[in-house]
Amino acid sequence: MAGSSLTYFTCTLGQAAITENLASSNTKTINDFLESQAQLYPKFPAVGFPVPVPNEGEWRSEVFSFDDLYKGSITVAKELSPYFGHGNIGKPSCVALLCPSSIDLLFTWLALMRIGTAVLLIAPQCQPAAIASLCKSCDASILFHDTSHNDLASSAASLPNSNFTAQVLPWRTLEKDITGIICAINGSNSEFVALYKPSENDTAYIHHSSGTSTGIPKPIPQSHRAAFGVLPRLDGQTSATFTTTPLYHGGIADCFRAWTSNTLIWLFPGETLPITPKNIILSLSTASRAETEASTPPVKYFSSVPYVLQTLAEEPAGLSLLQNMELVGVGGAALSPNIGDHLVNQGVNLVSRFGSAECGFLLSSHRDYAVDTDWQFLRLPSECTSLCFEKIGEENGVLRELVVRKGWPHMAKTKRPDGSYATGDVFEPHPHIKNAWRYHNRSDSQITLLTGKKFDPAPFEDAICSSSNFIRDVVIFGNERQYPGALVFLCRSTGGNEEKEAWNVISRHNNEVEIQSKIDRNMVAWIIADELTPEKSSKGTILRGPTEEKFAAYIKELYEGTSGSPLASNVPDSKVHSLTASIVHEVMGFKIKDDEDFYQNGVDSTKATQIRSKLQTVVKPRSEIREMQDLVERYSHFDSPTAEKQNAVPKTSIAVLTGATGGLGANILDNLLDKSAFSPIICLVRAKDEHEANKKVSANLKARKLSVPALSRLKCVPVSLSRADLGLSPEILEFIRREATCFIHVST
Fold first, then answer.
1. CB-neighbour burial class of residue 442 (10 A; exposed 0-12, middle 13-18, buried 19+)
2. 581 and 529 belong to one structural domain
3. One Pfam match, by short name (predicted)?
């Protein structure tokens, strides 16, 4: 990282530990830290809020010093203390806080910690069931909330098995402004006595996951030490940060990163305004005026999540704003490569910051921005030995999983007996730069089709969205289905060609992905985004599970609509050939000659199922009952006597199986081997010789933890399924014709 200096904005916990100048050197808890800051740097600005002024033009600002934070937390703690009763002995139970990112949230959070309780910070995007689940998991006895969330809080508290009370913030019931309460500080603040004095390892506050897959978020506790004690003390007084990240998510971490280096952080006013390019620009204009009028440090660092950067990049004024920043940090989710590349090409010093609530700030792509444009590649300092990238299972590819070893400054939990934490985040190495890694996917985010094929939908979704102005969001689905589909959320246009334009984009990207990932046109649900939207977290990331549940009817119709369609008809025999060929062409993207082998041309089980489903939409199936009646009538009369009944039933039968090198075939083979009635079992395998055929089948059984049988019961024979004689010797072919009694064909 030659040419790049260490800053509080990009310093990871590993780098902080190496500096040996940590915030916990003198103080052990958040309460003590704020008191120390108030004593050492009382007038230093700590946090600023742009304040919109309706119908009055320029916004004003509220800037609080470290002294304000300390004394204000005590004043608000006095307002809240009556709700904890009198004469409490010991540590109070956890309390929850439901509030937009605002001055209310900031000081209520600080005050509750001052009282001595742990604070569960709940994102306002949570549904009542999610809020109730979080409160139950954390044993929260009270849910404090602002007046704008009365209904949400009441709904959560009234659910069955909810064991907490919803309490509106007391000054809100009196229509008082918390700023007025803070400013009414008097000399009695020092007389406040907390109900409990926490230690550095006690839980200070609790974040929660977004519940991306299940819709039910999980609590992630943060100790006092983890919150600020592992951060570095660097000189940041001349470089303020502006963050759009709400306090109830990464905004708190942004605050402590600035505060431990004695500098100011500006927070977006999330209580009254949506995060739009216009409002961000107005917020930064307000911060710029404060620099002139109140001598606050200039904003040099900008922190946000990907969707905010994307909206700014699309506006000339927004792009100019980013270009004027010393550093622009992105995290919380993956930024589209197209958007990131565009920003870097336009001169934006873009840095990717990667971390987790469990382990804090892990890696960044901080580098020499003048010569290094690889913003996606996170840099692992050679001196940092507490992080490593491990091989995934038995795979021989380049992908590796990030593992946090014992000794890392902060781990909220571990996953392994040796005290390490496997993050589940998968990376790929830079082809030339040592110790540079690009995020690939979550190891648990893949879609697994019914065929056993897997793929990560996120890169495909990102590529589609970033390639069209018509497409706002894409959600690919397909878990435990034969093939995938997509919910495509379209922006309205005056031309009315949204679907056609959007499909052209999807079709183009279909040619760039693996065959199991391809989306067929009849598996796309077109949805107008102005009317219906996918479920999202407060970070802007799509909640896959809840979205699939919300649009379950659409998904069901797509899958069921491809089987036995009412539009199907009786196709004349003369058109069956051309119709079948056109459907194969449509599914595969290229023509396959009549005498060419399907398998050799990439028609696997997924594509075969799609071809069959498409045929069913245009060819009306005959009634199975009618067909059986026809067969009965046709074969009810015999011109020759039937064969004599055998006197004895053979003790064993000979089974012939194809597809034993696949998932389904391996399990069928395992079942056949359990039955003594079948011996031998002949496996027809695509291989050059018998040795290779045996090796393929044995390896497949071992990989799936199935037993490998004795050679006396299993005979693996190399075949070529495209040949009329299967490529078998005349002797084996005749043996199968004469002796085999069970045929199972599951190969594609």
1. middle
2. no
3. AMP-binding
